[in-house]
Amino acid sequence: ITTGLPASTIATALKQNAVDMCLLANNHIYDNSDQGLTLTMDALDANSLLYTGVRRSVADKTYYIQDINGIKVGIFNYVYETGALSSSTISIARPGPTTRSPNANTFASL
Questions:
Q1: What Å distances lie between residue 58 and 4, 55, 89, CA to CA?
Q2: What are phi and psi of 57, to 5 degrees?
Q3: Which of 23, 58, 68, 95 would bridge with 91, disulfide CB 3.0–4.6 Å?
Q4: d(CA 44, CA 61)
Q5: pLDDT score at 91
Q6: Which residues, other chains included, contact 66 with Cβ-Cβ below 8 Å and sequence gap of 6+?
Q7: Cα(109)–Cα(71) distance, integer angstroms
Q8: Distance separating alpha carbons of residues 35 and 43, to the nearest angstrom
Q9: How much is the pLDDT for 72?
Q10: Can you say how many angstroms the Cα of residue 15 is from the centroid of all Cα atoms in its chain?
C-alpha cells in the first residue's frame, strides 16, 4: 500500500469501509521494497482482509476461490513485467521460464 500512510492505517480504513479483498500485483507493489510489501501483507492479515497477486511462499496459492452466495468465484491478479522487480525470499508464481523469484504474480512476453 503506497499512500505515504502506514499500511496498518490503510488496512483498518479498508476494513471499516467494507472492503473484503485487495489485488496487490501492480506496478507499484515494490515502491517501498520487500519490507513495504511484507508490512502490507501483515496489515491486511491483521485486519482479516483477503488479498491475491502476492504470496509469502511457494506453498501458497496464486489465486483465491471465494464462495459468494453458493457460487464459487476464482480470483487471480497478475501484473505485466515492465521493469526491475525485487528478488526476495517471498516467492510468487510466474508463468513461463524465469530465474528470479519476485514477490508479485507477474508475466512477461515469452
A1: 30, 8, 10
A2: -150, 165
A3: 58
A4: 17
A5: 40
A6: 21, 50, 72, 73, 75
A7: 33
A8: 12
A9: 97
A10: 17
The ranges of the chain with pLDDT < 70 are 1-3, 81-103, 108-110
Residue 79: name the closest of 18, 28, 11, 19 by CA. 28
Specify the pLDDT at position 101. 41
Cell numbers 496489515 correspond to 43
* pTM recorded for the entire structure: 0.75
Which stretches does DSSP call E strand in 4-102? 21-23, 50-52, 63-68, 71-76, 79-80
> Tens digit of pLDDT for each residue in 75-92?
999 887 655 444 444 444
Cα separation, 86 vs 79, in Å, equals 14
Q: Which residues pair with 54 in a beta bridge?
A: 104
User: What's residue 30's pLDDT?
Assistant: 77
Please provide the size of the chain in residues. Answer: 110
